[in-house]
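Weekly sync, protein design subgroup
Attendees: M.S., D.O., the rotation student, P.L. (late)

Item 1: inverse folding check
M.S. brought a backbone from last month's batch and wanted to see whether the design step gives back something sensible before we order anything. D.O. pointed out we never logged the input encoding, so this time it goes straight into the notes. Structure tokens as presented (247 positions):
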């Protein structure tokens, strides 16, 4: 595998700008899926109705399904929402077999519903998971126990279907702007993620600690809109991933 250091080359800059444009075509903080979390109703995770996830989500999952045969087993897959979708992994890590399976606006139930197309069918060696900020920001009444139920279901499914895979759980980045009040819940969910990663013997990569400012919000230098990493933030993220991708 070829891994190079971070250089602000023209190619890297163009790739990152392209990724940022993808962010804004379907912003992370949007109600792109119609399934909602009601206080007293738990969605059956085994029988999620994928038709309610929205046309964009369905289209992306179908694109993944058609693309999966193009990838040899044993690579790395990045799974998440628009933060992941916009990350130009191949520009930062040329020569490394990385598949991007981010969908803008996705939530935990979305990743659970597409676990086969996004993870299992690729037969990866490594899975990098970053998902949950949409649940945190858009569903403030979603109890922490429901977060745990959904993460545990997903982790159990990965362990059962890909027992040899290395899983890297990434903590949720802080938010700046209109959704900043959700940062207290971000801390709660991140504490849960660290605990679950330990319980499942998964790796935990702390993105939050590197992106937060003194006020507990996203650093201005790392994000132009307060949610999605810009070029500077993406470079920081890449350096945090480098030890796990380049060996």
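Designed sequence read out in the meeting:
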């Amino acid at each position: 595998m070829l891994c190079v250091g971070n250089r602000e080359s023209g190619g890297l800059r163009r790739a990152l700008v392209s990724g940022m444009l993808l962010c804004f075509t379907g912003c992370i903080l949007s109600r792109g899926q119609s399934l909602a979390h009601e206080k007293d109703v738990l969605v059956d995770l085994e029988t999620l109705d994928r038709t309610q996830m929205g046309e964009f989500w369905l289209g992306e999952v179908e694109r993944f399904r058609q693309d999966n045969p193009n990838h040899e087993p044993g690579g790395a897959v990045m799974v998440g929402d628009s933060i992941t979708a916009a990350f130009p992994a191949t520009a930062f890590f040329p020569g490394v077999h990385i598949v991007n399976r981010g969908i803008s606006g996705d939530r935990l139930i979305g990743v659970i519903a597409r676990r086969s197309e996004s993870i299992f069918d690729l037969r990866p060696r490594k899975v990098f998971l970053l998902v949950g900020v949409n649940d945190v920001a858009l569903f403030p009444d979603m109890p922490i126990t429901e977060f745990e139920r959904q993460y545990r279901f997903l982790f159990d499914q990965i362990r059962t279907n890909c027992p040899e895979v290395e899983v890297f759980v990434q903590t949720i980045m802080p938010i700046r702007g209109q959704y900043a009040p959700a940062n207290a819940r971000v801390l709660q969910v991140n504490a849960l993620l660290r605990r679950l990663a330990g319980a499942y013997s998964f790796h935990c990569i702390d993105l939050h600690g590197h992106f937060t400012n003194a006020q507990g919000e996203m650093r201005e230098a790392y994000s132009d809109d307060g949610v999605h990493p810009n070029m500077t933030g993406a470079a920081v993220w890449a350096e945090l991933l480098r030890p796990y991708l380049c060996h």
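Discussion: Confidence is low (pLDDT under 50) at residues 4-11, 13-28. Strands lie at 76-80, 98-102, 126-130, 166-170, 203-205.
Action: P.L. to compare against the previous round before Friday.
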